[in-house]
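Subject: Sanity check before I submit

Could someone independently write out the structure tokens for this chain? I want to compare against mine line by line before I put it in a report. The sequence has 622 residues.
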Amino acid sequence: MKMLVSSLALATAALATAALASPAFAAPAAAVAPATGATTAAAPTAADVDAWLATADKAYAAQTVTSGRAEWVYETFITDDTAQITADTGAALSKLQVQQATQAADYAKVPGLSPETLRKLTMIRTQITSPAPSTPGAAEQFSALQAKIQGIYGKGHGTLDGKPINGSDIEAAMATNRNPAQLKEMWLSWHDSVGTPMKADYAKMVDIANAGARELGYADTGALWRANYDMSPDDFAALTEKVWGEVRPLYQQLHCYVRGKLNAQYGDAVQAKTGPIRADLLGNMWAQEWGGIYDIVKPQGAGDIGYDLTSLLTAQNYDPIKMVKTGEGFYTSLGFKPLPETFWQRSQFTKPQDHDVVCHASAWDLDNRDDLRIKMCIKVEASDFVTIHHELGHNFYQRAYAVQPSRWYQEGANDGFHEAIGDTMALSITPDYLVKLGLLDKAKVPGPDKDIGLLLRQAMDKVAFLPFGLLIDRWRWGVFAGKITPDTYEKAWNDMRLQYQGIVPPGPRGADAFDPGAKYHVPASVPYTRYFLARILQFQFYEAACKEAGWKGPLHRCSFYGNPKVGAKLDAMLTMGASKPWPDALQVFTGTREMSGGAMLRYFAPLSAWLKKQNAGQDCGW
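---
Independent answer below. Compare away.
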């Protein structure tokens, strides 16, 4: 199974599955049978390792199909029985992964291995993000702890005016509520009720995972995570910090401008004119994306982008299927062949009326070949139109790399590539594209005077997210390495939030607080740097596509719809999957092996110049 979810905030409904499947890390090596195909020779040779890899590859591929089908049935028909079935198959997949990773760690020590063999052995070990050691009972303990803290998150709530309110309702309220006292209450109550109770258990999980990582040959769990990028863990950390350094000035200008608007909205007593921004005022529980407060910051006259995509879709009588057909048409216009008929027969496009489903958008490949599907509960609105283009990016990537002979190569070039492909296509939903679809009258295409509004709206999500996308794993790397200890968890978190994001909590946070736990990916042990990479890479991909298409106008208005030259070059990268180090894949499409924030800066160049004018005379630090 290759299932890709569409956004950062995973649906609470999916938490039940994650918790049930958490025995994914629960099979201690001592209780696992010898790896299928493993040699029993006292001194295995390089040929023995290659023979084992071939057998292990087939076993892994087969189990991903079994587990994927069970997960699909659960998410599209939620019952106690389907939940148990997916938990069982998920546990079987994870047991196999643990078994194979343990064997791969041993085989990595065999002399004379080829670079490709060593790379596969690394991939097998690093696909387990929370390895448990072979110590009897350790894996079961980790599984129980993770299920417990994910349960705390899934059942999490806060208060509004002293009355209970669940997490999803808080998220919605924080994007629209403009009462600073209520925002503060929701923020503090959520973090206190969700994060604080899981702190001690999280610390225990860290110790167990670190022991498992060491058995797999890594210094700690953070080093294991960073080892999955075709470079040393230290080099990868340095690369992401370098890229952040490139885009940080743009973020600082956006921060400075938004802080001024919040000061004008709320006054000095709530948000000062200088220094950091109060975290609860940015329209999002984690201050990770700020689009919820666009109404506060939009520039006078330019804030209205000139058209409403939802209204255009409604006026043209679009329904969910027509929206998906249109998304498919974007890819076929580039020369990709249409999706298989089974896609239309088996996908979930709308929410059923007679049973429960997980509505959170996701893209699936059920057989490692061409059983491609999306799972959504589509509404005829702009956000779902964009999401469809994004999700289909996953599907076309999945089909492209299905030609790879190894299941381990049937993945994105790195874990940031998959999200970046979908986001590249979403960036391409420009007025020019809408005109070509017949959705927007050419005479009503917004003029250059609307560019700042268009770009600011994008930046409030794309640019605002960058430091958050970086710091979650930066904090965890420090925790895993022992540089951040349980007694300093909260202080280190707030120090890092201040350093990278320039934000502070809306109230005092004691040493017993555990605000990192109030973000889903921390209790769920999901690495997060992939989202930072995706935000950077999507602009590199988009710029490369626009150059190939010969686009001459402002980059942010580019549409490469209908250009088969772009499609051919894109397909060359997608087909590679993970068969080569990711810089090789990047070079095929963009011409460079260097990940860089330069394309993002060029995309937002008009906004950057405008922000500097707006911020003239201001102290833009914190």
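---
OP: Matches mine. For the report I'm noting this point. The longest helix spans residues 233-266.
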